[in-house]
Each structure stands twice: as C-alpha cells, then as structure tokens.
Protein: 2Fe-2S iron-sulfur cluster-binding protein
Amino acid sequence: MADNEKIKVSIDGITVEVAPGTTILNAARQIGGEIVPPAMCYYSKLQGSGGKCRTCLVKVSKGSEKDPRPMPKLVASCRTTVMDGMEVQNITSNEVLEARKGVVEMLLINHPLDCPICDQAGECHLQDLGFEHGAAATRYEFERRTFERIDIGDKIQLHMTRCILCYRCVFVADQITDKRVHGILGRGDAAEISTYIEKAIDNNFSGNVIDVCPVGALTDKTFRFKNRVWFTKPVDAHRDCPDCSGKVTLWYKGEEVLRVTARKDEYGEVEDFICNTCRFDKKHTTDWVIEGPRKVVHTSVISANHYETLKPLPVVKENPKLQEANKHQFERSVRL
Ligand code: SF4
Ligand code: FES
Structure:
C-alpha cells in the first residue's frame, strides 16, 4: 500500500477515508458528532493511553473487504485499528449501548455520587456518561472502597474514592514532567493511585494531572470549593511564559480569576500542557493578555447556565473582543 493511500471505514453508516493504522475511535473523530464513542482513558496527546476503561466499546459488524466476518466480541475502539472496508456500529447497535450501560454501572460501583460537593461537577466525563447511559439504581451489594483524602504536594488533592484508574495522570507524569513519583500500586480491586512513600509531586508541570483526570479524583486545591464551574466565565488569555505555551483559560467570577486551566478541545483534551507558574501563580487579569471568551460546547452545563450580570466587569469594559462577545448583553441592559 502506497504511503499516502487511504482506507475506507464506515461508522454507523457514515463512510470516511483514513490513513492505515488509524484507530476506530480516531476515524470516528474525523467524522465527528454523536457517532464518536466516549473515551474515559484514551488521550490523544498521551502515548500508550487507552484500553483501560472500556467505555469506547463498539461492534465491528464487518471485519474488512477481504474478510467480511464480524468480530466475535465488542472491541475497544481506542485500541483497534481500522481495515479497508470495515463496518463499525456505535450508537446504531443496541448491543453496544447495553454494554456501555454495564461499563458505566461498573465504573460507578466505587465512584461516589458526590457530584453536589465535587469540584469536577459540570465538567466530569463520568457525570456526562452516567447521565447518558447510567441506570437509576445499582445492583452492587458489597461494601464500596473508601479512602482518606491525600494531599499530593500543596496544590493538588487526591480523592482516591473517585478515581477510575484510567492511568492518564500516570502517563502525564511519565511524559510531561521530568520525574514521576506516583503510579498505580496494587492490582485488581486493590489497585490505587499513590505516591511512593507519600512523596509530594513537586514538578513545574505536575498540575496537568488535574486537567487530564476525567473525574474529580485529582483537584486543584487553589480552586477547591470556591465555586461551581457553571457560575464562572471562561476567557482565553495568554502570556509570554518561558516554560510553556502560556495559552490558558481563565475562569472568572466577578472580577476575580478563580482558576487557570489549560484550554480543552471538544473531546475534553488539553490543547497545550501548561506549567504550574501559569496555573497556580498568575491569578490576576494584569498577568494576562485577554483574547476573548472561551467557546464552550452548547450542550455543556457551563454554557447552559449563565447568571448574567447587568454590570459588565472591568475586564469586559476594557477589552474590545469581550465587548463584542457581550454585545447582546449590553443591548439588553440598555433596553432594561
Ligand atoms: S486520579 Fe484521575 S487521572 Fe489518575 S488514574 Fe485516577 S481517574 Fe485517572
Ligand atoms: S477509551 Fe478506550 S478503553 Fe478507555
């Protein structure tokens, strides 16, 4: 096969041409929309990620043009590469939807339903998944695992009870920081994220574990309990940072920057990893060049529930891009 030759795969009846070696999940992402399987552990920027959570299961109803036999079991789309002529079913297969429901039930066996007090609520992938595929009740009768909260350094808190063992934070520490001091210790139902002899994670890129965690297991202690994310306003900003790209999202409440995060794409993956100085130490508008409001997918609770203030913030008044974005708001205040 020539280097630039593409192969055809159809997902839920939509055909796309992709490079050989592409996974089913990434082929689906090239199509986009509802047919993209959810992914709790795969992260395109982290090598070796995927294959842990099984939320991305799909049905291969035709293996390839050469061998059209269906695959005997559902497969993890983040780990299965496409073949020419392959036909895949995701939301068009009841079997997949049933299996996904089972996976969510399994993930929720130990994960507490403490969304009302969890900082990740509103941007938690498990919360979204539970909403879309969760059952109303659990069939689990045994005692759940519980853990004490652990401080990992002075800025990050680990709630092991919420961890779904996706390994993303371990890959971040391995690939983005220069020294990994945490990992998954134990196996099976004894597996847990831990630092070796409770060492603090002390590294200028360690804060990225917070952004990649799909649930609220790793949270930002500087933002803890300060606000619900849907009451905050995300604004894109940058600074000239010697250590990272300096491209971030500032989360405003009133005039205060409550937290700084990396910018995330439509799949909840960060666009550029950022350093701890940008994340934890630059919490004033004057530290940043404001670019404009962050676009949040309209289905997200963050964009759904804006409690608009009729008094524009100083940061809005002073910035032409934010003024333009808030035009309707200004017009509304004039009308009122
Ligand atoms: S702490 Fe978060 S990122 Fe790390 S393994 Fe657990 S769920 Fe995944
Ligand atoms: S995203 Fe594929 S197994 Fe987790």
Observations:
- The mean pLDDT is 88.
- Residues 163-169, 193, 212-215, 217-218 surround iron/sulfur cluster (ligand 1) (CB under 6 Å).
- The longest strand covers residues 247-253.
